[in-house]
Amino acid sequence: MVWNINTLMPLFPVCFLLIGLTVTVVLDPYISKKHRVIMFIIIALSLTLVAQNIVENALAAGPLRRFWRTTASVYGYTVRPVILILFLYIICPDEKHLGCWALALANFLIHITAYFSHICLWIDNTNHYHGGLLSKTCLYISLLLLAYLLYRSVRNYFFSAKSEKRGILIHVFVVLMILAAVFMDGKVGGEDQPVTFLTYAIVIGSVFYYIWLHLRFVQMHEDDLKARQRIKIMMSQIRPHFLYNTLSSIQALCLADPEKAFEVTERFGTYLRQNIDSLDQPELIPFQKELEHTRVYSEIEMIRFPSIRIEYDTEDVDFRLPALTVQPIVENAIRHGVRGKAEGVVRISTRKINGFHEIGITDNGCGFDTEAAEKAEGSHIGIRSVRERLAGMCGGTMTVESRIGAGTRVTIRIPAEEADEKLS
Fold this sequence. Notes:
Blueprint: H1 5-8, H2 11-27, H3 33-61, H4 66-91, H5 98-111, E1 121-123, E2 129-131, H6 137-159, H7 168-187, H8 197-237, H9 240-256, H10 258-277, E3 285-286, H11 287-304, E4 308-314, E5 320-321, H12 326-338, E6 344-353, E7 356-363, H13 370-375, H14 381-394, E8 397-403, E9 407-415, H15 416-419
Parallel strand pairs: 4-6
Antiparallel strand pairs: 1-2, 3-5, 6-7, 7-9, 8-9
Helix pairs in contact: 2-3, 2-8, 3-4, 3-8, 4-5, 4-6, 4-8, 5-6, 6-7, 7-8, 9-10, 10-11, 11-12
C-alpha cells in the first residue's frame, strides 16, 4: 500500500472530530462527572480504534508479520463491542450492564484463540486474512448489543417526560448509521481504505451521544425553570394579605354567622388546593377547570365584600390554556379596580372568533395608566407572568385597555389550533 496525501486525507476529519469532542467535553461544565468520564473513555477507545485500523491496513500491505497483524485484528474485534456498551452507559449510567460485559468477555476469549487456533481467524503464510467457524462472533455480539441499545432507548422514550422524547431520534440514527457502516464495509470497503466505515460511524456516534447529553441537560434546565416559575406563580397568587384577611373574616363569621363561616372555610380550602394543584400542571388545562378555580376565588371575595358582583358570559368553553391565567386577572380587577366601589362588577366572557378563543375580563373600577404600569418596576408581576406563559405555551396574546375612572378590559386571545389540541 502506498501512503500519500490522498490516502491520509480521510484521517483528518475523524481525528479532528475526536480532538474537537475532547476539547468540548473538557470545557463543558454542565455534563455530570460520570458522563464526562464515560465520554473520555469512549474518545480514547475510538482513537485507539482509528490507530488499529491504520496499523492493520499497513500490516496487510506490508511483509508478513503474523503476530502483530493477529494482535491488531484481535484488538479491533474486541474494542468495538466495548464502545457499544459504553454507549449504553450514556443512556443508563447507573446500571452495571453485567450481561453485556459477559458478551464482550466471551467475544474477547473467542478472538484470542487466533494465537493458537484457526477456529476464529488466522493469517496465512502469504499474509492473507482468513475467517474461521467463529469469525462472525464480533458481528453477532455487536448486533445483539445494538438491539439492546435500541431497546433501552425506546424504553426510556416511553418512561421519559414528553419534552425529552425527541431524543429518541438521535439513538435510532446512531444505531442505523452503525448498521449501514457494517454493510458498506462488507460491500465496498477495501485495502486502500485506512479507516473503516464502522470506525467512522462509531466516532460520529460518539459526537451524537454527546449532543444528546447536552440537549438533555438543556431540557432538564428548562424543566427546572418552568417548575420554579410555577412555584413563583403559585406563591404570587396565594398572597399573604389575602390569607390574613380571609382568615380574619372566617374568625369574625364564626361568632356572627357560623354557617357562612363554614361556607367560606370550605371554599377557601378548595382555593388553596387548586393553587397547589397548579404546580403539577406544566401543560395546558381545560378552560372549565381554570374557570372553576376563578369562581371559587371570586365567591370568597364576594362574601368578604358584598358590594362586588361577578358576571359570567362563557359561550365558548371547549379549549385549553395555561393554569392560573384567568384567576390572576380577576384578582387584579377586584383588588385594584372594583373593591372600593359601591357597586363593583367584574364580567368574564368568552367567544370563538376568527380562529381564536377570546377571553374578556372587564371591570367598572377606577382604571389605571397602562403605560405607566408597564414601566413601573416590580408592579403587576402576575400579569406579566400570565402574558409570558400565554406566549410560550400556546402562542396566545394578552392586551390591556384601561381608562382612569372608567374601568379596565383585559383581552386574552389563544389560537384555536393550539388550544383545541388534545382536548380529550
